[in-house]
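check this:
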Amino acid sequence: MASGAVPELLTAAPGGRRRAASPAIAGSLVTFAATVAAGALLARRYTRYCVRGVSMEPAFHDGDFLVVDRAAYRRGAPKAGHVVIATDPREPTRTVVKRAAEVTALDVTLLGDNPDHSTDSRTYGPVPYEAVLGRVVWRYWPLRRSSSSMLSSSRVGPNFTTTDSSAGRSARPSISTSDSSSARLM
């Protein structure tokens, strides 16, 4: 078959004879197969997380949905300010969402944006690069939030963090977008 040619598909004609399917149908099937293959590849790279807890408010609230790029750090380390998903070093079956605050040659310090309701590297220390599973790239739900403290866009910027609440909340990922310059001094 020549490059760029649509493969010929055969269908049963009345009386049991075979006839070639129309080029439009064959092209549609090829397009559909390519779309399914691309979707499968994207599903392996990106995954969804639901925010649980208050540790990352006001930017991310309980029930927000996030998209995480699991391939973001395959060829390099996170940068300070990136919001990442990481394995909780105290409980490896649990995932936390935090902001990378400091990156050294061996590990990453993860901090939450809401220090009063955050369990982070101040509690369990820096985590190794291998514990970082991906970078948060987008908050896709809710579409809009009526709060002056939110960013005008739902895209995740460099001032995002994740934590799990120490106030007895569920141990699922949390994330916030509050600006680090507005953090309280302790």
Observations:
- The chain has two domains: 18-45, 47-180.
- The CA atoms of residues 111 and 120 lie 5 Å apart.
- Residues 147-186 have pLDDT under 50 and may be disordered.
